[in-house]
Each structure stands twice: as structure tokens, then as C-alpha cells.
Write a structure and sequence with these properties.
Elements lengths: L2 H13 L12 E5 L5 E5 L8 H11 L8 E4 L13 H7 L4 E4 L11 H8 L3 E4 L3 H7 L1 H9 L3 E9 L17 H12 L4 E4 L1 H7 L20 E6 L20 E4 L3 H10 L4 E4 L3 H10 L4 E7 L23 E8 L4 E8 L1
Parallel strand pairs: 3-4, 4-5, 6-10, 6-11, 7-8, 7-10, 8-9
Antiparallel strand pairs: 1-2, 1-3, 11-13, 12-13
Bound molecules: NADP nicotinamide-adenine-dinucleotide phosphate.
NADP nicotinamide-adenine-dinucleotide phosphate (NAP) binds next to strand 6, helix 8, strand 8 and helix 10.
Length: 343
């Protein structure tokens, strides 16, 4: 088995990591013993053993030795005492011959120290060419640690003419059920928190929980937190549904600047947030330059009317702002989905 194939095993294990690892990243590790046997393991739960520790435990159970073995890890082995002892020390103690690493860990307490420790102990360290796939596992987590602020996804649902709600104001939803199921399953279960406005809370009284196609809440470890972002003094939220939702009551987040709020969220271990608000806050966020990804559900309809539409950029295009189209998907007869990523 080549180093590349071993890293593919580690990647496959990491992709199955449950959300319970948050606020840790998804990490997978794979072992190739000196006599050609292989094994993979993943980090399973925050505070629990890291992928390398679980790999060593599993190897022991199966009677496999790490002496002279090659270990592939999707993220640099840690070098610090956190909730668990350093994984680099474990690999050194077990006399591993070679470690294939997917990515250097941007987390300040690791940041290259794990690799240095391994090299200083005489272990061969190889950086894997599969770094792109390792990056994709924890894209938002890595972004947050590199920029010391939460990663921001702006989620919107509009008509073709950029309206956020129907002209009569009666319907809360501009897109159909397929778009909502998609957003709940792929976005709300992914992010750590939803940022909204008091205007949207008052208008829609939304729950902002993650639900399946039947409207049933996903398990609580898949529920995002909710923050009501405002420049004003805190208001009473107790009469709204967000006060009694799965995933915990919404909190008021006093806004000084978008940058400061995103840094504060990062300091609380909230690394991946999604803005779900109306045209005013959505436009302001995009104009601020703090949107890293746009998830746009578009209904093939023209709403017309006088109500404000999404028009933040004085006619500017998203590519001109440094976004590229990453995905375009038709969800139903009437709705499609676009994902734009800051390059
Ligand atoms: N289609 C969709 O995807 C979608 C999603 C959500 C909501 N909606 C609809 O959108 C409507 C509400 O839209 P809206 O435009 O009135 O409100 P909005 O965009 O949800 O929120 C506007 C509020 O955001 C706060 N804010 C904080 N920083 C701001 C900034 N820099 N610039 C502007 N506002 C800032 C302000 O409240 P403070 O004064 O408290 O700071 C402001 O009143 C509702 O009817 C709802 O149904 C649609």
C-alpha cells in the first residue's frame, strides 16, 4: 500500500466523524504495519481520544505493532497537553518509522510543533499530496483558526428578481419545500450558529432549528445555536419560538462591528456561522466583506412590487468581489441552489 492509499484510508475514516467532535476538527488516521497490515480510526467525540490514540488502541486490540510502521494522519499530530496528552509523543513512544501528514494544524498551540517533534525524534515526515482533500474535511474550522474569527455563510432565498418575500407579505417562504429540506439537512446541521436580526424574528417568529423532511428535529448535537445580531439594547425574546427551541434559547448579540462580533464568536468556540436574515442585514453583511460563502436558493418566479430586494453592491457582481461559483443544483421544478465561495 502506498502513502497515498494510506492517506485515502485516513480520509475515509475522518469523513465519518460525527458532529460530536465539535469544536474539534474531523480527523482520521491510518496504520500500515511493517508487515503490511492496515487499519484506520477517527476522532469520535470532543474531549475523547484523538484519532492517533484510537488507532494505537485498536492496533493493540488486534495484536498489531506500531514499531517501524507508517501512520497517515489527515491533520498534524498535536504537540500540546489539551484534553488529552500529545499525539506526537505517542507516535514517538510507539517507535513509528514514518508519519504522512495531510495538513499543518493552524491551531496556535500546535502550528508546526507536532511535525518538529516527530522530526527531532528521527521519524520520517512526509506531507501528503492529498492536502486539498484534508483541507475540505474541515474547511470552515481551518478558516476560523487562520483568521481568528468565525467563518461566515450568507444563506438567502429569493425570487429571480431578488425579492426575499412575496408581495402580499403573507408567505414566509419564497422557495418550496425541497429548498427548505436542503437547507436544513446540509446547512443548518453543518454550522455552529445562525445569526439573524430582530426584524426577521418579529416578522416570521422562526424556530431556526434543523429539521428533516417530516418536520422532526434532528438530534440536539446537530442543532445550531441562534444569535440575534443587533446594534440596539437587548430586547425580550421570551415570547418568540427561538426562546424554546431544540439547540437552546437564542441569545442577543450586541453588534459593535461585524468583525468584532465574529472575533468574539470565535473566542467562544463558534467557528462556522450562517446569516439568515432579510435583505437589509444580508446586504450589509455582504458589503462588509465578511461573507466567505454564499448559499443562495432561487425560486424561478418574479415577485415584483415595491418591497426591497437584495441589492447590496450598487450593481457589482459577485465574481468582481472575489467569489467563484462552486455548485449549481436544480432542487425541484421551481427552485435551484447556488453556492459561491470566496477565492
Ligand atoms: N428569503 C429569505 O431568505 C429570508 C430570510 C430571513 C428573513 N426574510 C424576510 O426578511 C424580512 C425582514 O427583512 P428586513 O430587511 O426588514 O430585516 P433584516 O435584514 O432581517 O434585518 C435588518 C436589521 O438588521 C440589523 N442590523 C444590524 N447591522 C446592520 C447593518 N449594518 N445594516 C442594516 N441592518 C443591520 C438592524 O437591526 P438593529 O437596529 O437591531 O441593529 C436592522 O433592523 C422578513 O419579512 C423576513 O420574512 C427572508
Amino acid at each position: 500500500m502506498t502513502s497515498l492509499e494510506l492517506m485515502q484510508l485516513a480520509l475515509a475514516a475522518a469523513r465519518e466523524s460525527p458532529r460530536a467532535v465539535r469544536p474539534n476538527p474531523k480527523v482520521g488516521a491510518a496504520l500500515l504495519t511493517s508487515d503490511g497490515k492496515s487499519l484506520a480510526a477517527r476522532h469520535e467525540v470532543f474531549g475523547g481520544p484523538h484519532a492517533e490514540v484510537r488507532l494505537a488502541e485498536e492496533a493493540k486490540k488486534q495484536g498489531l505493532s506500531l514499531v517501524g510502521a507508517t501512520v497517515a494522519v489527515t491533520l498534524e499530530p498535536c504537540a500540546h497537553f489539551g484534553k488529552t496528552p500529545p499525539c506526537a509523543d505517542l507516535l514517538i513512544r510507539e517507535k513509528v518509522a514514518k508519519v504522512v501528514v495531510g495538513l499543518q494544524d493552524p491551531f496556535a498551540q500546535v502550528a508546526g510543533r507536532g511535525l518538529e517533534k516527530l522530526k527531532a525524534a528521527g521519524i520520517e515526515v512526509e506531507m501528503s499530496p492529498l492536502s486539498g482533500a484534508c483541507e475540505a474535511l474541515n474547511r470552515e474550522w481551518l478558516f476560523a483558526h487562520r483568521h481568528k474569527r468565525a467563518h461566515v455563510t450568507l444563506k438567502m432565498a429569493t425570487s429571480l428578481d431578488g425579492k426575499f418575500f412575496a408581495a402580499d407579505g403573507k408567505s414566509q417562504w419564497i422557495t418550496g419545500p425541497e429548498a427548505r429540506v436542503h437547507a436544513h439537512r446540509h446547512l443548518r446541521t453543518r454550522v455552529d450558529a445562525i445569526l439573524t436580526s430582530f426584524a426577521t424574528v418579529k416578522a416570521d417568529d422562526p424556530l431556526f432549528s434543523a429539521r428533516d423532511a417530516e418536520g422532526k428535529d434532528f438530534p440536539s448535537d446537530k442543532q445550531p445555536k441562534v444569535f440575534v445580531l443587533s446594534r440596539s439594547a437587548p430586547q425580550d425574546l421570551s415570547k418568540f419560538k427561538i426562546a424554546k427551541r431544540a439547540g437552546g434559547a437564542a441569545q442577543w448579540l450586541q453588534l459593535a462591528s461585524f468583525e468584532k462580533s465574529l472575533q468574539d464568536l470565535y473566542a467562544q468556540g463558534i467557528f462556522d456561522v450562517m446569516v439568515e436574515a432579510g435583505p437589509a442585514l444580508s446586504s450589509a453583511f455582504l458589503e462588509s466583506g465578511f461573507v466567505d460563502e454564499v448559499c443562495h436558493y432561487v425560486a424561478a418566479s418574479y415577485v415584483g412590487g415595491e418591497q426591497s430586494s437584495f441589492a447590496p453592491l450598487a450593481g457589482g457582481s459577485l465574481p468582481a468581489l472575489g467569489f467563484s461559483l462552486e455548485a449549481l443544483e436544480q432542487l425541484s421544478e421551481t427552485d435551484f441552489f447556488l453556492r459561491l465561495q470566496r477565492k
